């Protein structure tokens, strides 16, 4: 097998990944030709079997948890689905047709009083359902009004300048400017109804407003509007902030999570968590010298990291990411192999509603996988499922399950299947049944005795699709309302 020198690795492909691609191609070449719809593969997949492995997930074997099980079934795993230019055109179309997706370079630099009021109301209206604290105590009208008052509408002026900033630390985006957690009446403590999404270091934001206590910003990201903690954002000149997000060359985190190297001399660049799809400019030794925070950078990726000075202003600094981490120069090529490989890097991570619990939910999972290949999407499942981008089939109450099965029979790797409040990713068939990977909360199905079984998954899982139950009466198949190919 040929080993590549790091200088030979093409843009968007790490050395680690290139070597894997060569060995995978060799493996596939040594096997009989197969297609994606082939129901079985003769070769056994090598994997570390756990002793006394048991589970309660219908239709699953331990080997199905290995990405290689699915990769070896692909006919053309490394064939480009879209080139980099085609991905850019795809994104342009998505931004054009999806109102919730925002080119921050086109964002106005000031908002009228009515426009700002409308923005606050869009995210911070009083909830229409009762909300409860973890203790079981229902939030009173006065408590809910206090959260609303914290949005500081009294400070809105006739004209309100918009600031711009870069995220310096992974941070939650919230319905109201508070970290208080409130829940529905079922007191499912995994679902904080004030949690909206998360933002990662290096993401640019338009800052529209400040909370009454000055500790929160109402911020617009490329696909979401909500409240973010001011301490996790550095304010900078608009042009500098926007230019940061398009600097080249750039590194993309392709591991589930990495941390910058520890440094005792500069805390803002030390052990900063970077999630999959985080994009940061790459620096060279010509720019940094051969000593970065007390360490020679030659065995690391040197990235430019936004940090926040004592006045909350933007200060860019070098940071190191050790080369043993999965990081690529540029985005990964958009291939079926990369879709599966990236998705399986999250396997077993706990479910985190709205990026809570330092994790992600079903749409966050999909977003990070596709964004590591440079593809942007809306944040919420309904925005994605009904979105006009991609090749989308939408079903209504007149649609039959047979129609859905016929479309699933033609599914391509990475196709997204939408149910109310949920999305799953197609990864292949076994014996004619579609299998998916998804970040999922609950688990239900009809067992061998046709009894309803209720359990929990609460993490990134591989499951069959049509055997899962959606509540006690419906199946996943019953509730599918859209199937989307990101192509």
Automatic annotation (TrEMBL):
Superkingdom per UniProt: Bacteria
Domain NlpC/P60: start-end pairs: 333-482
Any one GO MF annotation of this record: cysteine-type peptidase activity
Keyword Protease tagged: yes
UniProt record, GO biological process: proteolysis
InterPro entries given in the database record: NLP_P60_dom, P60_peptidase_YkfC, Papain-like_cys_pep_sf, Peptidase_C40, SH3b1_dom
Keywords, sorted A to Z: Hydrolase, Protease, Thiol protease
Classification via SUPFAM superfamilies: Cysteine proteinases
Family: Belongs to the peptidase C40 family.
Protein name: NlpC/P60 domain-containing protein
């Amino acid at each position: 097998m040929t080993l590549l020198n790091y200088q030979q690795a093409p843009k968007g492909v790490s050395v680690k990944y290139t070597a894997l691609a060569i060995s995978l191609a060799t493996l596939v070449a040594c096997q009989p030709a197969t297609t994606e719809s082939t129901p079985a593969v003769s070769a056994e997949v090598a994997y570390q079997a756990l002793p006394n492995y048991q589970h309660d997930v219908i239709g699953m074997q331990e080997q199905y948890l290995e990405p290689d099980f699915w990769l070896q079934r692909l006919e053309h795993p490394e064939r480009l689905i879209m080139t980099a230019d085609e991905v850019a055109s795809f994104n342009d179309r998505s931004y054009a047709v999806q109102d919730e997706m925002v080119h921050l370079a086109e964002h106005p630099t000031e908002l009228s009083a009515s426009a700002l009021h409308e923005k606050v109301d869009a995210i911070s209206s009083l909830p229409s359902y009762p909300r409860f604290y973890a203790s079981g105590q229902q939030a009173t009208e006065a408590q809910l009004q206090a959260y609303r008052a914290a949005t500081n509408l009294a400070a809105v002026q006739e004209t309100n300048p918009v600031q711009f900033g870069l995220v310096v630390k992974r941070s939650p985006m919230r319905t109201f400017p508070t970290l208080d957690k409130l829940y529905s009446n079922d007191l499912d403590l995994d679902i904080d109804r004030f949690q909206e999404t998360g933002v990662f270091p290096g993401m640019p934001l338009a800052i529209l407003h400040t909370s009454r206590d000055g500790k929160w910003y109402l911020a617009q990201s490329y696909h979401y509007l909500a409240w973010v903690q001011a301490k996790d954002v550095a304010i900078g000149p608009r042009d500098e902030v926007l230019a940061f997000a398009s600097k080249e060359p750039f590194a993309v985190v392709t591991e589930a999570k990495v941390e910058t190297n520890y440094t005792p001399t500069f805390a803002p660049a030390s052990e900063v968590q970077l999630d999959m799809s985080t994009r940061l400019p790459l620096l060279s030794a010509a720019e940094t010298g051969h000593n970065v925070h007390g360490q020679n950078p030659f065995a690391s990726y040197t990235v430019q990291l936004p940090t926040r000075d004592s006045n909350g202003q933007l200060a860019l600094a070098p940071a190191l990411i050790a080369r043993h981490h999965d990081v690529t120069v540029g985005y990964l090529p958009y291939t079926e192999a990369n879709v599966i490989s990236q998705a399986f890097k999250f396997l077993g991570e706990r479910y985190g509603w709205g990026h809570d619990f330092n994790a992600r939910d079903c749409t966050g999972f999909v977003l990070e996988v596709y964004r590591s290949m440079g593809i942007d999407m809306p944040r919420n499942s309904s925005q994605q499922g009904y979105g006009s981008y991609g090749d989308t089939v939408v079903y209504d109450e007149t649609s039959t399950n047979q129609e859905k099965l016929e479309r699933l029979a033609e599914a391509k790797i990475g196709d997204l299947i939408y149910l109310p409040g949920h999305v799953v990713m197609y990864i292949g068939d076994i014996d004619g049944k579609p299998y998916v990977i998804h970040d999922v909360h609950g688990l239900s199905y009809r067992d061998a005795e046709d009894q309803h079984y209720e359990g929990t998954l609460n993490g990134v899982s591989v499951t069959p699709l049509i055997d899962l139950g959606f509540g006690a009466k419906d199946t996943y198949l019953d509730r599918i309302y859209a199937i989307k190919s990101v192509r």
